[in-house]
Amino acid sequence: QVQLVESGGGLVQPGGSLRLSCVASRFTSDYYAIGWFRQAPGKEREGVSCISSSGDVTYYADSVKGRFTISRDNAKNTVYLQMNSLKPWDTAVYYCATVRLPFCSPKSNYWGQGTQVTVSS
User: Fold this and answer.
1) DSSP per residue over 64-81, as a string?
2) HSE-up of 7 (CA within 13 Å, CB side)?
3) Is 16 left (phi over 0), alpha (psi -120 to 50) or beta?
4) Mean pLDDT value across the chain
5) Which one of 23, 70, 95, 100 is least enclosed by Cβ atoms within 10 Å?
6) Nearest alpha-carbon partner for 91 in 121, 66, 116
7) d(CA 84, CA 17)
8) Chain centroid offset of residue 11 CA
9) How high is the pLDDT of residue 47?
10) pLDDT value for 42
């Protein structure tokens, strides 16, 4: 499985925006369907969004639809998650992983460090 690294998290006020990035640790010409997941302390990991290898198909959890946008730049081996109108309940560690469509289920049960998103006033 390709190694992925998340970045872009931080502390933001409610209503603010962040853009997360998921990039392969090394350049490759092979592309994958990618999903974003998040896990808050004491809660189960949940799927947020995913995108097909070509970028032509996207899915969103109802909780983020209309606020988050997933995209990718295959030339940079990078998938983005633009998060707008952030709410306190978006606070979590965000992870990316290769996934199976159409349900955005992760292919592997191994997870990296993720990137922390904290939405607080």
Assistant:
1) TTTTEEEEEEGGGTEEEE
2) 6
3) beta
4) 93
5) 100
6) 116
7) 4
8) 17
9) 97
10) 94
